[in-house]
Amino acid sequence: MKVLLAITRRELAAYFATPVAYVFIVIFLVMLGALTFSVGSFFERGQADLAPFFTFHPWLYLLLIPAITMRLWAEERRTGTIELLLTLPVAMWQAVLGKFLAAWAFTAIALALTFPFVVIVNMLGTPDNGVILAGYAGSLLIAGCYLAVGAAVSALTKNQVIAFVLATAACFVFTVFGSPVVAGFVADAVPSGVLEAARRISLIGRYDSITRGVIAVRDLVFFVTFIGFWLYANAVIVELKKVG
Amino acid sequence: MAAMIEVDGLTKRFGPVVAVDNVSMTVARGEVLGFLGPNGAGKSTTMKMISGFLTPTSGTARLCGHDVLDEPLAVKRRLGYLPEGAPTYPDMTVLAFLDWVASVRGFSGAEKHARVERAMRATSLGDVVYYPIEALSKGFKRRVGLAQALLHDPEVLVLDEPTDGLDPNQKHEVRGLITAMAAEKAIVISTHILEEVEAICTRAVVIARGRLVADAAPGALAARSRWHNAVTVRVLPEQRVAAIAALAQLPDVHSVEAEEAPSDGLLAISALPASGVPLEGAVRTALSNAGIAPRDLRIERGRLDEVFRDITTGRPAHPETSQAA
Lengths: 244, 325
Known about the structure:
heterodimer; A: mainly alpha; B: 11 helices; 14 strands; 33% helix
């Protein structure tokens, strides 16, 4: 536990040691604001909720989360520090989970800084703050999913650009799978069984229902399993790289 | 004396390339093993396997009785390892980095503080404690890596080129540090500085093209040189021909080498023994019979660089079999 904490703390501090953290947070907040107020018609809707705000989270994450995860393993491999990390008395799961938790905590910090949206909507009307809380939970969960995918992909390469592009592509696939648009588009080409399976592993449907305030155990189990699976894959990839 | 490091048939293949080929050796407490070889011979790969960073294709390594494949954490707790190139996190300050390593190694509170302090003192990092590592010179970075490896006072130290990039004073300090620790530890250092091996190592292992080609004390290795027990005398230039003739007719002399041009008015002439036998008495007698009084007479221990070159390029080192001049 102490080891895990030490790794998480170092990784989290590493984000703030460079301008990465500040650039990320500023861009995240600015883009979220722009999307919510202009594209999301936050005011024009005349409703005291944060639905237009949460709608954009997965799409923004698609672009920004891989930027957080791309360095996680790729940079360690490029600079050789992975050799240091893996020859310290650290279990593989501690290294993998420590890095993931740091990235997740960082995302949570960025997300927490969106609190003015909550303040505004509470000033303008009387929103259901329970639903807003659920929205934040959903946002954090889907961010966790992207982070887990991105971390695993980062372990594949020592090139951060490759890690970024691959992670974006992979997250995109998991996001749009099962969305009505994509389903309609490929319905003729793909057997219905595949489509059904794709819909089941799609993140966006479950995210939407959570942000509407419907927190189903089924969905929570799915998110946790999804993250667990990718963290496991991450550990396997790092372990396989030791074989050369 | 129990072996603290047992390397047992370590082999590593990268596709068709055999980087390390069935290397076995043991290192006991109190030994400082110099791991030698040309670049690309497999030194670092072997060390990466001992430390558990690379998984061997076959064979294994045991540290203090713990198998690196079965009990990696037990091995890593007992091992101080300086990886190739001394990688450290460049964004961190020296203090933050060492503090972090200490935390990961399970130290906390006053003990952690004391250990970080001691490691920094041992490696003379006191002046750069609050510098980010990326701002440090190569020598300082190397010492941060060394401090990290020493922090937990491990029983086994595996150091990949600990003095690379250090200036002569720093090299001297690090060698002193290693010698001071040697008694209660088993230490492996890789290097291609041969004087370092002679200065601090109790044993030298030479690896070439992935294979172990020599495992002996540095002195014994030097004794394989055709220069081992060679006698060098300095004579006046006009005595050159007579001296060479006198030495060449000795039965135990394999060959005679002479300087072309004199320095300080004297000419050095060396008699190389046939099979490492001592020549001093015979040389003195032969020269006095020829009426030559040598100005000084020196007995060579052997030239490690020459032996190194011979065994790593596959040529034999002994005069009986070599095509010596």
